[in-house]
Design brief:
The chain contains four helices and 32 strands. The protein is mainly beta. Strand 3 and strand 4 form a beta hairpin. The relative contact order is 0.16. The N terminus is likely disordered.
Length: 573
């Protein structure tokens, strides 16, 4: 333990001279990648443990606790989940008239090498995305096809057997994609209509998606076809949002045709510092569907708040109550400025009888419960103290922060048994609270360099210490060290370059395989070159994603991380 405490203590002492690190110089939408979270990983905003193109364990660089943000209840959360997986493929549609295509492949594909190789070699997998938007006065009509095969080739054989009994020619309707025959991680086709006259904004969108999500309990892949209908109406300070999902298992086994549906209704009023809201969710599933809703219907009324009663005091949080569900999620933060340095103390309190009332499922197999996800949590709290400062040194700016923290009663999965099936480990068990206090510390050093606004460099070093507590029961222990060197430049003629060189000592992931999975220390390199044309009405870009990849998994039984190349072109109508 001493070798973990000493780095934290040394940087904690330096924290008296530290300041909040500066922002990422690479625009959030610049590094071209397959999904929004993979673009964030490419810029070093992770870490993200990759299970598939749509399934990952997320923990942002600014987060402290070793839990995925997707698991926590938040009525206005940016990444709500559907059957335990992020709904990235059901994200809101575009807000401008950008039209184009993105194509790419894992370098090493047979089609790229067949001239130099007479023997058949392993076929790598592509990604194909096409999107279009047409402005019609105050309205916008849009459509898209997004299909990502990357990280899928490891499971093609198992997916083929589950979907078609290995004979796809007789079951052409069960290929699980809108385009091609690769059994991709997901293949979504959809479109929508948006109206905005300055006072009223209305949005409706529909998608049909072939999808292989991992069940949140046993980690089995579920071969789904999902229809998703989403609407949103904004008028003055009122927001009305509805979502409906109908999922059907498309498989050659006995569960073929089993269905589940989810309907959500959210009404809110934005009053500045206060936002009252009402949320209703109805879940329904056939008796043999893999996931069974634990509650069926949830009705909640709540209020979110965020304000400063005093210049140095910030209060923020969310309170809710409903049919058998209640919760309090509050933050109290004090800020003190001394001689240009900023000291911050914060206390976070979560008091609730359900970890996430919208994601309470039990998983069944042959009529038997194999995983219980109805996690009851009555007391979660954590506190932290951050010391930071920053100082310029010519063209450089040095920032250093230190944040020791302590947390009580964090959630994790408790596995009772494992079984090897379909090329991966599956598990049985339940969600539970890891009793005891977890102690940790995060230190960040950021050096920004810029001689002009058109050329920016940033070096970020993050050190994490799992100081004390029941870390061996947590799903994730972050990497001890992460380093990112980022660059963004605007060149003459509308040419732009963004690059990120990353290094991580590797995280530890538990409760998903019999032995903890230790990610190997490794570097990553991601580069995007973009050319803007015709006064930014058109753009062409090309990305090289991790040419340093050594085909090793970054997740228990996960697919290999491979060098990928993507290109795209888009015009604004």
């Amino acid at each position: 333990m001493v070798n973990r405490i000493l780095p934290a203590a040394l940087l904690l002492a330096a924290g008296a001279f530290a300041q909040a690190p500066a922002g990422d110089p690479i625009p959030a939408d610049f590094l071209l990648a397959e999904t929004p979270w993979s673009a964030a990983r490419a810029a070093g905003r992770g870490p993200f443990a990759i299970a598939s193109a749509s399934e990952q364990m997320t923990r942002g660089a600014g987060d402290l606790l070793p839990v995925s943000a997707d698991a926590l209840f938040a009525p206005f959360g940016a990444a709500p989940s559907l059957f335990g997986a992020a709904r990235g493929l059901f994200a809101p549609g575009p807000r401008d008239s950008l039209t184009g295509v993105i194509v790419g492949n894992e370098v090493g594909d047979q089609l790229w090498q067949e001239i130099g190789h007479k023997a058949r070699i392993e076929n790598r997998t592509p990604t194909t995305q096409a999107f279009g938007a047409l402005p019609l006065g105050r309205a916008l009509l849009w459509g898209e096809l997004r299909q990502v095969d990357h990280w899928s080739s490891k499971y093609v054989s198992a997916r083929s057997g589950r979907a078609t009994n290995g004979n796809w020619e007789d079951d052409i309707d069960k290929l699980h994609s809108w385009f091609g025959e690769n059994y991709p991680d997901f293949s979504a086709l959809g479109g929508g209509y948006r109206w905005n006259d300055g006072t009223l904004e209305a949005d409706v969108q529909f998608r049909g998606a072939w999808w292989w999500p991992l069940s949140p309990g046993s980690l089995r892949e579920i071969p789904l076809f999902v229809n998703a209908l989403q609407t949103e109406l904004r008028f003055s300070k009122w927001i009305l949002r509805t979502q409906y999902y109908d999922a059907e298992i498309r498989s050659a086994d006995s569960l073929d045709g089993e269905r589940a549906s989810i309907g959500e209704f959210l009404l809110s009023y934005d009053a500045g510092a206060w936002r009252p809201w009402i949320l209703v969710r109805v879940d329904d599933a056939s008796d043999r569907f893999v996931l069974q809703p634990g509650r069926g219907q949830v009705a909640l009324a709540g209020v979110d708040h965020g304000f400063r009663p005093l210049p140095f005091l910030r209060l923020a949080g969310s309170h809710w109550a409903g049919n058998g569900v209640w919760g309090v999620n509050d933050t109290l933060e004090l800020e003190q400025r001394v001689d240009g340095h900023l000291f911050s103390e914060a206390v976070f309190l979560r008091l609730s009888n359900r970890l996430n009332p919208l994601e309470e499922w039990t998983e069944v197999e042959n009529g038997e419960t194999v995983a219980d996800l109805s996690h009851s949590s009555t007391w979660q709290q954590y506190g932290l103290r951050t010391l930071w400062s920053s100082a310029p040194f010519g063209p450089f700016r040095l920032s250093l922060s230190s944040t020791p923290w302590v947390a009580l009663d964090l959630p994790a999965f408790e596995s009772s048994a494992y079984k090897w099936r379909d090329s991966r480990w599956t598990r049985r068990g339940r969600e539970r609270t890891v009793e005891g206090a977890l102690w940790g510390a995060q230190q960040r050093l950021v050096v920004d360099f810029s001689r002009c606004p058109c050329r920016l460099w940033q070096l970020e070093v993050v050190q994490e210490s799992d100081i004390a507590g029941p870390w061996s029961g947590m799903d994730l222990t972050p990497a001890d060290w992460r380093v990112a060197l980022r660059h963004f430049s605007k060149l003459p003629g509308g040419l732009e370059l963004g690059a990120a060189l990353l290094y991580t000592t590797g995280a530890v992931i538990r409760n998903r395989s019999p032995e903890p999975f230790e990610e190997d220390p490794h570097p990553e390199l991601n580069v995007t070159l973009r050319q803007r044309l015709f006064g930014d009405r058109a753009q062409v870009w090309f990305s090289l994603l991790n040419p340093l990849a050594d085909d090793k998994p970054l997740y228990p039984d996960g697919p290999e991380d491979r060098f990928r190349a993507l290109g795209g072109v888009a015009v604004r109508i």
